[in-house]
Design goal:
CATH superfamily of the largest domain: tm_1862 like domain
Distance between the termini: 51 Å
Strand order of the largest sheet: 2-1-3-4-5-6
Strand content: 15-25%
Number of helices: 15
Shape: globular
Number of domains: 3
CATH class of the largest domain: Alpha Beta
CATH topology of the largest domain: pyruvate-formate lyase- activating enzyme
Number of strands: 19
Bound molecules: S-adenosyl-L-homocysteine, iron/sulfur cluster, FE3-S4 cluster
Oligomer: single chain
CATH architecture of the largest domain: Alpha-Beta Horseshoe
């Protein structure tokens, strides 16, 4: 038997890419590949890329440049680019960086085995189609392979919303929901392999409308209630949601489904109605706040998370202040904020841009406020009892690290529990990026 070939995958961007990388690794496992943590001993390098902001896309080219020496030493090394940069730039990638052998878009991953074989013959291979077949069904799983207690599961992909700044509808294609039975069997398989927490993924996950077990289209809440029945699955999360798709049954589930965790990522992008309109977000600051109000009525302790863009074309200081006001009203437990980045091919790219120095200044002020809120909410956990799912050993002997119901990292010393255990923990202190707690017997 020949030695297994080694695959090095580096993942950029969102959780969906993390899920995809895992599926690609398992699929290439069928071709005799095992994963390696070092690019130096790889027979194949795959960069799973993100195109959301200019910096993210440029990172890929600088990373590729670093493989030049390696490729010169190992002519058999194959280098592939997957993900959203692959979809957006296609052949251009091979023109800009001739050492790339293979370019594969997010909807073609199931074709990787054939592509790899073709690349091995010395050909350059490209596939950025949006094929009809269901890639999820054709991607292989590594049967029964043990895995960590928390896993992602993509249930919906693509986006039809076309926010004026965003590349996702172009790189991931139209919104598609996977059928319920396929998701259930994938979830059961994950649980058999040791998974205790599943995060359902989709670019617009709460717009989920997959074929249910009774033939009708199901909502995300219906899917969650079905997953709730799986023995051994202890926690359910989902991300990312759009404010306009926060339906009543999903809001209600946050109050009634004990496996559904009290955490919701609900991006708003801006607090100014003028800017929201120009962004084509189709919600207002007020309608967003009303949704939050309903969610908090169903689950008062829910921790909210958001995404923000500052410096979107035509944003004035007054518009920015509206964003600051909205943040003060909501109080986020965690948030991601970005300076607007012009993306070729999106509607906003053609518009008059905000002065970059003003945008930088706004980003700093917004981040200071968000960090302060994050810290206050984290500190307010001290003294409370929370569930913690242990995911790994800590740096010190006897210490374990896990995630709380609210997704805070929690360290527990002298911990008698194992990885994969869900325990009740009393929070005793709050540090810069994590909490410390003790087991409650
Ligand atoms: N589907 C999610 C977000 C997907 S992209 C939603 O509807 O909100 C993740 C985040 O990246 C976005 O929420 C947005 O805040 C940010 N983002 C997207 N395009 C961007 C751009 N051109 N410049 C800066 N940030 C951007
Ligand atoms: Fe992008 Fe808007 Fe779709 Fe989110 S809803 S993925 S921001 S187009
Ligand atoms: Fe990036 Fe594509 Fe995700 S652009 S954020 S990797 S969907």
């Amino acid at each position: 038997m020949s030695a297994p070939k080694k695959l090095f995958i580096k993942t950029y961007g969102c959780q969906m890419n993390v899920y995809d990388s895992e599926r690609m690794a398992e699929t290439l496992g069928e071709q005799g590949y095992v994963e390696t943590k070092s690019a130096d001993d790889a027979d194949m390098i795959l960069l799973n890329t993100c195109h959301i902001r200019e910096k993210a896309a440029e990172k890929v080219y600088s990373e590729l440049g670093r493989f030049k020496g390696l490729k010169a030493e190992k002519p058999d090394l194959k280098i592939g680019v997957a993900g959203c940069v692959a979809q957006a730039e296609g052949e251009e990638i091979m023109r800009r960086q001739p050492l790339v052998d293979l370019v594969v878009g997010p909807q073609s991953y199931h074709r990787l085995p054939e592509m790899e074989a073709k690349a091995r013959t010395g050909d350059k291979v490209l596939d950025t189609d949006f094929p009809e077949e269901d890639k999820f069904e054709r991607l292989k799983r590594r049967p029964k392979a043990k895995r960590g207690p928390a896993a992602f599961l993509t249930v919906q992909e693509g986006c039809d919303k076309f926010c004026a700044f965003c590349v996702v509808p172009y790189t991931r294609g139209a919104e598609v929901s996977r059928p319920v039975d396929r998701i259930l069997s994938e979830a059961r398989d994950l649980v058999e392999r040791g998974v205790r927490e599943i995060t359902l993924l989709g670019q617009n996950v709460n717009a989920y409308h997959g074929a249910g077990t009774d033939g009708s289209d199901w909502t995300l809440a219906q899917l969650i209630w079905e997953l709730d029945k799986i023995d051994g699955l202890q926690r359910i999360r989902f991300t990312t949601s759009h404010p306009n798709d926060m339906q009543d049954d999903l809001i209600e589930a946050h109050g009634t489904c004990s496996k559904l965790m009290p955490y919701l990522h609900l991006p708003v992008q801006s607090g100014s109605d003028k800017i929201l309109k120009r962004m084509n977000r189709s919600h207002t600051a007020e309608s967003y706040l009303r949704v939050i109000e309903r969610i908090r009525a169903a689950r008062p302790d829910i921790l909210l998370s958001g995404d923000f863009i500052v410096g979107f074309p035509e944003e004035t200081e007054e518009d920015f202040q509206a964003t600051m006001d909205l943040v003060k009203e909501v109080r986020y437990g965690t948030a991601y904020s970005f300076k607007y980045s012009t993306r070729p091919g999106t509607p906003a790219a053609e518009r008059a841009q905000v002065d970059p120095a003003a945008a930088d200044d706004r980003l700093q002020r917004l981040q200071a406020l968000l960090t302060q809120q994050q810290r206050e909410i984290q500190d307010s956990m001290v003294g409370r009892e929370v569930g913690v799912l242990f995911e790994k050993k800590g740096r010190f002997p006897g210490q374990m690290v896990g995630k709380s119901d609210y997704l805070h990292a929690v360290h527990v010393s002298d911990c008698t529990r194992e990885i994969g255990d869900l325990a009740r923990v009393r929070i005793v202190s709050s540090g810069p990026n994590s909490l410390a707690g003790e087991l409650i017997d």
